[in-house]
Every structure is written in structure tokens, then in C-alpha cells.
Write a structure and sequence with these properties.
SirB1_N; alpha+beta; Protein SirB1 N-terminal domain-containing protein; about 5% strand; 2 domains
Length: about 290
């Protein structure tokens, strides 16, 4: 894959391009079988105005190229995990570190493919997409606090092999997985935690990570905005996201639009919590007052 211009905390595209990307993202998310790589690359384009259509195509081609370097049907789940470990972790150097949590690029697939660094969930997307293209039985596993990859038939978790792309694709023992869960929750590993993650759930988790990054950096409300707007384009989302979006619009100085969205949210919550609806309407009035 060609060199991609290094950018620190990239900025989103112009409004017209952003609106088109949101439309495409919503269509893909509502497709019968949403494509994980496509959704992640549309997230990347929404967050990085330098990523054009040629760049999106180049990222897909890179995933194809990497898949072409895997051995043909190496064997069972453990053989697949070892093959991905050797190719992506050892030969290509994909891995993560604590510093990657501070970089927005670590949540953008096209940047992860070039930098070969990223958050656990984005590195797992690379593992999943490369392995899937090569014919491996592979899926994401959303352990609490740490995303990993599972190999084997999804309906046969007894033979499941787990790998940690953040650690270069190291194959995990049962006790390794238990320690990861205990470190994140203080509790035991429940078998339900090992179930395959739905692609849309993966994308929601990625967008939540982006929103958390932006929440720690109030000066980057532009990042919070595009992440919220993509979250709202998902087929299902918590109603409260509309309230967060409306409040963000007001914070960014879009007082009339924010007030209108606050009132729309108040209509939604009126039936279940009239007091909360009234409070939101007062916030809408206050937003309009800021125009004076």
C-alpha cells in the first residue's frame, strides 16, 4: 500500500462530502449483510478529509494483498491463528501500545493499515478482514475492555482459538482470556463473552471510542460531531444520542438547529418522563436566547 500522508488528529471533510459519507454509511449499515471493512473505511473518511475514494479503494486492495500472502487453508482454528500471527504480527509488525490510545488515527482503519498500529478493536478488524478474505472461520470477540479475534466455527465455541492482535496476534490460553476480563471488570469470564460480535456492534464500539477520545478534548468538538452523526445513522441507537447531538450543536454555536433538535427530543421523552421533557424544552429556550 502506498504511503499515506502522516496527519496528527486529522480533520473531517467539507460538509457536502461529509453528508454523502453519512448517507453511504447509513445504507451500508442497513444492508442485509453489512460489510465491516466498508463501514470502517467510511468512518475513516468521515474523520479524515484527506481520505478520498482512491484512498478507500487502496485500503481495500491492501486487505486483499495481505490475504493473498496467507497460506492456502493451513488447517484448523489454531493453524489459522498461527498463520495470521506470523504474517500480520511478526512479518508486517501490526501491534498496539498504550500510546495508541491517545491518537485518533488509532480508530481509523486506513491509518491503521499504514501505521500498523491501532486500538485493539481496529487491529482486530484488520485480522478479521484479512483472514475472512483468505477463507478462515474468523470473527470478533468483544471481551470487556479488550477486543480480540476468535477462530473456528462460530457455533462451536468449544473449539474456539483466541488471538490478541494488540499483542501482535499472540494466541491466548484460557487463563489469558480470564486475566483480560478480570483486569477489566474484576469479575470472572462468562462464556457469553466469547460469542461472535456482530459487525454493527463492532462499528458502534469504534464510534464510542472516537466519542470518548473527543470528550477528553473539548477543542475537538468537530470529532464528537461526526462520530455522533454516524452513530445516529445506525439502524438502531439509544434515543439519548439525539439529546447529546442537540447539546453539541448548541455548544458549537448552531443555536437554532440545536434548539429544534432539543424540542424534537423532548417530544420523544414526553410520554415516559414529562418532567425531563420540560427541562429539555427550557434548554431549547435558553439556546435560542443565546442569539440575542
Amino acid at each position: 500500500m502506498g504511503h499515506y500522508p502522516a496527519m496528527s488528529a486529522p480533520f473531517p471533510p467539507e460538509p457536502e462530502r461529509a453528508a454523502e459519507l453519512r448517507r453511504r454509511f447509513g445504507e451500508e449499515a442497513r444492508a442485509g449483510r453489512p460489510d465491516l471493512a466498508t463501514l470502517c473505511l467510511l468512518v475513516g473518511a468521515a474523520g479524515d478529509g484527506a481520505l478520498d475514494e482512491a484512498g478507500i479503494d487502496a485500503a481495500q486492495i491492501e486487505l486483499d494483498r495481505l490475504a493473498g500472502q496467507l497460506p492456502f487453508r493451513p488447517g484448523g482454528p489454531r493453524a489459522w491463528a498461527d498463520a495470521l500471527n506470523e504474517l500480520l504480527g511478526e512479518r508486517c509488525g501490526f501491534h498496539g501500545s498504550a500510546a495508541d490510545y491517545q491518537r485518533l488515527e488509532s480508530s481509523l482503519l486506513h491509518q491503521v493499515l499504514v501505521r500498523r498500529r491501532g486500538l485493539p478493536i481496529l487491529l482486530s478488524v484488520v485480522w478479521i478482514e484479512v483472514a475472512r478474505r483468505a477463507g478462515a472461520p474468523v470473527y470478533g470477540v468483544a471481551l470487556p475492555g479488550h477486543f480480540v479475534v476468535g477462530f473456528g466455527p462460530p457455533e462451536e465455541l468449544s473449539g474456539q482459538v483466541l488471538a490478541d492482535p494488540f499483542d501482535g496476534g499472540r494466541v491466548l490460553s484460557g487463563s489469558d482470556a480470564e486475566m483480560l476480563v478480570a483486569g477489566a471488570t474484576g469479575g470472572p469470564l462468562d462464556p457469553s463473552m466469547l460469542s461472535p460480535a456482530d459487525p454493527l456492534d463492532v462499528v458502534v464500539r469504534i464510534l464510542n471510542n472516537v466519542r470518548a477520545w473527543a470528550a477528553a478534548r473539548p477543542e475537538r468538538s468537530d470529532v464528537a460531531l461526526w462520530a455522533l452523526e454516524l452513530s445516529l445513522a445506525m439502524p438502531a441507537h439509544p434515543a439519548r444520542l439525539r439529546y447529546e447531538w442537540a447539546r453539541l450543536l448548541v455548544r458549537r454555536g448552531e443555536f437554532l438547529r440545536g434548539a429544534a433538535e432539543l424540542e424534537a427530543y423532548a417530544e420523544v421523552v414526553e410520554a415516559v418522563d414529562p418532567a425531563a421533557a420540560e427541562k429539555v424544552r427550557r434548554q431549547a429556550d435558553a439556546a435560542r436566547a443565546l442569539l440575542n
